[in-house]
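User: Okay, second chain of the day. Same drill as before: sequence in, structure tokens out.
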Amino acid sequence: MSLTGGHDLAIAIAGPAIRALILKQLPEQLPIKGPVQIGPVAIPLTLNGKTGTVTLYAVLRKLTPQMVDANGTPTLRFQLRYDRASLSGAMLPKQVCPIAGTLTIDAAITVASTPIGGSTNVLQQAQVDFSAANFTNSFDDNSVEAAVPGGGAAIGAAMAGALKQLLIMFAPNGGVIPVGPAIPLNPKSGGSLSPLVVTAFRLRAINGGLVLFMNLDGSTRNAGDPKNKVALDLPANRNIALQMSAGCFHRQVFCPGLAKQFKVPVASLPTSCGNAGSVGYYVAQADETIDIKRLGDTFQQGRIVVDGTFGKSGFCYDLNGGFTGQITFPSGIVPKFDLVNATSDLDVPWYCKVVAAVIGTLTGGALFGAMTFLGVEIAESAVDNAISKQLKNGFDGLGLPAGALGSGAFTGASFDTAIVTAEGLSIGGTLPAPAIPWTDVTPGMSLDGAISTTNTQLIEQGTVKKKTPCTLEKDYPYTLQSVSETAAYDVTLQWVVQPMLSTEWRILIPNAAWTAAQVIPLSGTGVATLSQVDTIIPNLNGPVKGKADVTVAYTATADGITLTNLEPQKGGYGFQLEAVVTLCGGETKSVQRGIAFQGMVLDILGFDQDVNDCTTKWYKAIKAAAGRFRLERVPTILEKVDMPPPERFRQFFETMVRHGRQAGADTPELAAMLAAGHVGSMARATLHAEGLRTMALAATSDAGIRAASQARFDAANAALATAQSAVDGAQQQLADAQQMAVDVRLSLAGGR
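Assistant: Same drill. Structure tokens below.
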């Protein structure tokens, strides 16, 4: 009775498949694919007779489900790990942190009934209802009790209740999750295999998996006990199986299949299916109808044995015969019938022998010769067709027409193997249960925000004669404006204990070696003076570099800061903003971000477009020339050529920097120079020393620099140390490049 526990049918699902089935229906706000950070969450707390709320922050680390048997009830037990949690509020003597522990959720799998309109049947479905689940909390240590004497249990219960409400809020259907398909149940009369209608529906957890038990007949409604099944009995390498008892096979497959084949009700079949003494069966070879007297099926290891007897009486003779066959599943779930033995005998009284001889002479023994093969005819036609068709019809009713169970939460299951034992038939398959990818996190923090323009003032306007490397000199209208800007940045904590206890803000002024020459603390609201910072003021004849004392207004809080340049007319400048945060428990973390104020903006109308057009033309020429150096370096005849002077290269790269083009050493614009070798070195040195450092630290005069300024500022940090020495050798590198990049030179010269 272990295969189905005395029931007609059982659906057994392995633990990993059940876990995957549940996890894929849970909300992403739970730690299923990676940790989840929650907070601030206000949770109710009753402590020492007083009721109020406290604020909870936590990192939910991992949610692990398993199937258990809780006093006979199949139960999904979830272990929810959390850490880096904190509690704060007026009800507590102090902030409690860091807290780590495990929340255990026991959610019983129950059977829900839903009426079917216009029918006495109801839909039965296994489900998990988190609103009725039991949530318990366990801290990793006694730190909570130590911080709040006598309050550990109450705080643990409050945290469990809060997390329960979050889960119910995020989960679909108010926390109700189906487990498996909805199955019709007839509470008053019999059921059927096809379509599937059951008369009883029960559940049991076994070895970490789940079994759904079903009865199909009114007579078996109360049969079976889930406790009688002690193992999942899954075929090897399968995680789901449909299991049918031998009795269910006889009642729902064997006998109904024969009845359809003989075109009579089951009751009109002979034993072991019906009550009739026999049923007529037409034998084509003999053109005679034979009486089938018995048909039966017996389950054995690896096969279902089918046997029967038959007879025929006539003038002067009595014919009796029998057959034995077997049903096996050699290829998947398709049944195959093989005849094992077939016999017949003829009992003719002595006084009929003469008549029989005459009859035999006249008929050529056709009738009696056909009787010899009667067992073969019955077995291969009546039984084989009947069982095969009924099995298929039964599978169809369960949603198994092509080996795929496609109802309810078992969508995607495929069945491909059948095993026969003395207890019944097991159809095994695979329910998709892919591993859920896990992405872990790294604790840290960042300064997130932006710089915005708050006011502009026109200082000067007019026309100026300018030319690009590709055009002749011409007049361009221009405007010179001062720009007041405000930088607003907030501290964002990621995967650390929250909230912040305090934040110290500082302005760092780097020197040429990129160490902090000035450290200016910022607290509350005030004005900070930055002494002798590098500045740049745009000029029609080129940027003017200098040093100046500048003032910055600020408002600093624990969460964020705003900074405003009060003297934009002094030009652009840059500095590092640093936040040093003290977390709960005394841990400190710091983060920095580069800030660049433009101050003054020189906009030469139309010049930008001409420069962009020229840059595009040069880029195409350089790219075309670079292709010749891509595969290998080909020896060239060294000759003195008229290369553009270094100023032209510097002008080209500075133009790209000013207009927001990324011009690092690995970008397409430098592909040709990198391929030629030394030109690339010259380009990097010129770009970093004359472009990146000036533009990023002090900002530029051109419009549109805001989006690219931060990237150039950060890039300059790493490049400055090596850039200065590289600039000194740029002229010699250019001379070397003249001999190795003739095609590049020709392309550049052609683009002027």
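Residues 16 and 433 are 7 Å apart (CA to CA).

User: Thanks, on to the next one.
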